[in-house]
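Hi team,

Filling in the usual template for the complex we talked about on Friday. All components are listed, including any nucleic acid strands or ligand strings, so the model treats them as one assembly.

SUBMITTER: L.P.
PURPOSE: interface mapping
COMPONENTS: two
RESIDUES: 620
SEQUENCES:
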Amino acid sequence: MEQILTKEQIRREENLVYKKTSVLTENVLSYCPGCGHGTAHRIIAEIIEEMGIQDKTIGIAPVGCSVLAYKFFDIDMQQAAHGRAPALATAIKRLLPEKFVFTYQGDGDLAAIGTAETIHACNRGENITIIFINNGIYGMTGGQMAPTTLPGMKSSTSPYGRDTHLMGNPLKITELVAQLPGTCFVTRQAVHTPANVRKTKKAIRLAFEYQSKNMGLSFVEIVSNCNSGWKMTPLKANEWMVENMFPYYPLGDIKVPEK
Amino acid sequence: MKKELRLMKGNEAVAEAAVRAGADGYFGYPITPQSEVLEYLMAEKPYEKTGMVVLQAESEVAAINMVYGAAGCGLMVITSSSSPGVSLKQEGLSYIAGAELPCVVLNVVRGGPGLGTIQPSQADYFQAVKGGGHGDYKLLVLAPASVQEMADFTLLGFELAFKYRNPVMLLSDGAIGQMMEKVLLPEQKPRRTEEEIRKQCPWATLGKQNGKERNIITSLELDSLKQEQVNLKLQAKYEKMKQEEVRYEEIMCDDAEYLLVAFGTSARICQKTIQLGREKGIKVGLLRPITLFPFPEKILAKHAQHVKGMLVVEMNAGQMIEDVKLSTCGQVKVEHFGRFGGIIPSPAEVLQALEQKIIGG
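RESULT (copied from the run log):
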């Protein structure tokens, strides 16, 4: 049996295999333990560091759980009105085409109140990257029904489960934007396992690289859990996500650039 | 481009003045009676001359948020619309005021409420001057009364917007937007380089500089005590505007026994009314507020000491009259004459109203 390292040994330089990226600040994340936001933040920050673009990246925070995203990324950021992030990003990228511009939005922000801004930025083929966190619920305001809430899924505004006859159907906006000629790369990923984290990181890296080549809009959906809003433990929420969210929102690339 | 005398529509003058001011971007959405701003820019293609970006947005909501994004980078940007569209911009204006960003917004006002009419109106005075969007904020509001002022105030608007890091509204109307007059256009200013923008706007999100703190553009502050400090800072800024930026024009006020108070198109009508009145021996003058916020309170208070009455002439049901009454504190009789629904009053009917409501009343 191998010897288990002591805390002191683990901290030695020669034993370090991983460190926090310098593009994340020291601020304590405001997300619930078990939520996917923290991992998504880390991935984006790591890519910014690895690509060496911290000095020319401008991020747009939405309204929702990630409204305070600007506290966690050590880059210049703007905080947008609810749903309007793609409009801000459009203008910034058009006027400053040499910058890297990304929006970070949740499902309520991107697929309900900001649907018009999302679809038109995608359709114009703005050279920006949209990171879309889909957890099927309004987390920050306390667990209300979102545009992506699954049929039958309970929320504080669908307490008996989402009745699609009464409340409409979950919106697969990612499949929708993939239809638009302005999008170059549309993919759906998740961050609940190390393997998925690696895939998501690869996807976001590709999205940033496509932006540097002016190939059009890249759209990366990350299906995430919301253990607080779903009222489950983090582990149970991940299981529920795999069993219920993934069949409706299947993971994988939906649109890739033509070779 | 050198200084140039041209015959233009008011809307076109704003567009051309924005290009010549060295603006970086325009974002708009078609609505009558202001569509010429976007049409003119699309035809002129400033992006080929100065690099200024022109974009037709999917809505007025998107257009004002594009302004937010670009202004957050310290860029010089402008949007335009007319009343129903400006209502849609109110959310964005509140955020822009909250985040303290500079921009110019043109409202070519038409009659309301609702879809109303496409004819000229001044019914958006309250919206422009008293807030419009949510929260305690002020726009700096300029009221052009000629095509020349449409051009001049576009440049002045940018200057004041950057001086105060505050949105500036040009409160025009369908008459000034549509009518053609000769206008002396300024010479072309170069657009600022990124280095110049960083120097002028050290707060701008242009990418975090090595060794410097990152810049954040936001109007969010969850700590109430800190938010209160934000509000106090904004209020101090508005107070400074009141001290330093009041602008107005006085016409034949020195010997006036009666005063007409009007802005924009109404002021143009009142100029003729003064002439008609003087021909009849009525000593009438005109005070034209040029800044609607900050409002020319002091000069009105001064005139309240010596005139026998004031008639506030507006193309609305009585909006600016509230500020005239607040400025004069009941020391003089103040009445309102308004036409609305897109009607511009005639000089003769203004004179008649003066005679009936003030002189004979």
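MY TAKE: Chain B touches chain A at residues 24-25, 27, 53, 55, 57-59, 61-63, 65-70, 72-73, 75, 77, 91-92, 95, 99, 194, 205-210, 214-220 (CB under 8 Å). The CA atoms of residues 309 and 333 of chain B lie 5 Å apart.

Thanks, L.
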